[in-house]
Amino acid sequence: MAPRLSEFARGIARTDSAILPGTGWFDTIRHMPIPLLPGLLRMPVLGLGTWRMGEHRRTQAAELAALREALDIGYRAFDTAEMYGEGGAETLLGQALAAALRGPLQREQLCVISKVYPHNASTQGVVAACERSLKRLQLEHLDLYLLHWRGSIPLAQTIEGFERLRARGLIRHWGVSNFDLDDLQELAALAQGAACAANQVWYSLTKRGVEFDVLPWQQARQMPLMAYSPIDQGALAGHAGLKRLAAGIGATPAQLALARLLGEPRVMVIPKSVDPVRLRENFDAASLTLDAATRRQIDTMFPPPQRRVPLAVG
Hints:
The chain has a single domain (about 5-300), classed as TIM Barrel. The two termini are about 35 Å apart. By secondary structure, the chain is an alpha/beta fold. Helix 4 (about 125-135) links the parallel strand 3 (about 110-115) and strand 4 (about 145). The protein has helices spanning about 5-15, 55-75, 90-100, 125-135, 155-165, 180-190, 215-220, 240-250, 255-260, 275-285, 290-300; strands spanning about 50, 75-80, 110-115, 145, 175, 200, 225-230, 265-270. It is built from eleven helices and eight strands. Helix content is about 40%, strand content about 10%.
């Protein structure tokens, strides 16, 4: 059975209350506040993505340094997948986390998310894949385990594998990724389908289609939407209109792009970067609140959807 309140959330309250009583989630190194999503799956609203990490030996030292810097800045949620570098990203993340956990950081303060390949998503396959991921990550459990995208294996088999992992304590929650509305509805109709804790999709200012149907459906069911590529893999950082608007309020274009998404209830963003300056800027976006006028200007540049559009996948 899933815990009523995750060990992650309890760990946050327990550890940080000794530093700043009554404030909830705070970074124990620099004491920077990060809001949590409401509900059972109380993840930070901003985490770090690891796509394209671990793919090349020549870049691994810089990527490992970036992960360590992220931990020092205050990132506590990390998203990875067995697909990323064919396990390379999980291995690097595992090294960074293991080093941090030898210090004052506690496992309960982390929210670690990984994903299973669709071709590994049979009942037995998902269990074996998770065990391999945990070994690479040097962890005893995942906070959230996702089906990376829908494949040919029946969803009922994947759910059974997820539930077996939950029963063994190897994952706390499970969810999906790249699921459009019809996929979510089909999933919800299955036995135990309502236990789906999150859906991770491409959601950015240029990919706002989920706001028409997927996001409202998830919000009505208190299911977080995790936004990957929330700044379009860095492209929005160079957008001329966002640059002009950001300059007027002392922010960066990427921060505006992230803050606009975070203004929607039950949205978590997971931008990826290995640049120390970008890591800090992205992290600080979680504390940026946009006023109504700024939101309107962003929406004028990137209009919300007026009709259903196919789910963006990247």
